[in-house]
Amino acid sequence: MRWYAVTLSLCLLLVVWSPITASDISKEEILRAVDEVRAPGEDFSFDIKITSKQQGKNSTVQELTVSVKDATKSLVKFTYPPENKGRVLLMVGQNLWIYMPTINKPIRISPRQRLVGQVSYGDVARVVYSYDYIVASDQVERVDEKELIRLSLTPKTKEATYGKIVLWVAAETYKPRKAQFYALSGKLLKTAYYKGYTEVLGKERPMIIEIHDELRKGEVSLMEYSHMQAANLPASYFQKEYLKYFR
After folding, report:
1. 174 vs 42, 73, 145, 191, CA distance in Å?
2. Residue 125's closest CA among 195, 78, 177?
3. Is-contact 196 176, C-beta < 8 A?
4. Which residues contact 152 (CB under 8 A, 6 or more apart)?
5. In whole angstroms, what is the distance from residue 127 CA to residue 150 CA?
6. Reduced to 3 states, what is the DSSP secondary structure of residue 178?
7. Measured between alpha carbons, how far is 14 from 218 in angstroms, rounded to an integer?
8. In this predicted structure, what is the pLDDT of residue 99?
9. Which end of the chain is more exposed for a tag (fewer CB within 10 A), N or C?
10. Hey, what domains does the chain have and what are their CATH numbers?
11. pLDDT digits (tens, 9 = 90+) for 40-62
């Protein structure tokens, strides 16, 4: 009886003190946890510098300021190079428009269109994954002696930027480490690495995304984030009719 009591006590302690593992939460909760690492809330803003590098050519640089509202609306202001100033990008749900002063009216575009290098308009305008994708499968892998969760994401609608995303995240912290992005045809387009983790607004977040083109080997783009902060622009700003007035 004494042996039984000791054994039962040890089992209870193991249950109480056992750490939470990836299997203890759902696939959807894991993806939301990843989104919480990348985005500091539903209303925030940040600056982003995109540098596209091609072999034998000078680097191309673009700078933008992004404001996010309710997690599903994004307003993107082009700030560099000078000839792009005045351009504004608006994403509401799955709908994306660009305003250019030379045309003087918003034009509907696809989030799949390339902005610069390996970066699409959708990469800039949408920070989270769970709005556009569901987790089709997940599994735990060991990579370089570290436990990672491999998530296979499929789009909720045909308007999503990619046909599939395979995402590797740290099993304990849900920090994204690597992602592969596929076209609707199933072809691998690019591989991204999440780097430069820095504590911002109470959580370590990847402030650099390094993207390698899988179709044009040797071409690389860097997305560098800065000045991430809580911000709450008026809802009236996130309307295509307002784009020509936004400065």
Report:
1. 19, 24, 16, 18
2. 78
3. no
4. 135, 136, 137, 138, 164, 165, 166, 167
5. 19
6. strand
7. 50
8. 96
9. N
10. 22-130+194-245 (2.50.20.10)
11. 999 999 999 999 998 878 899 99
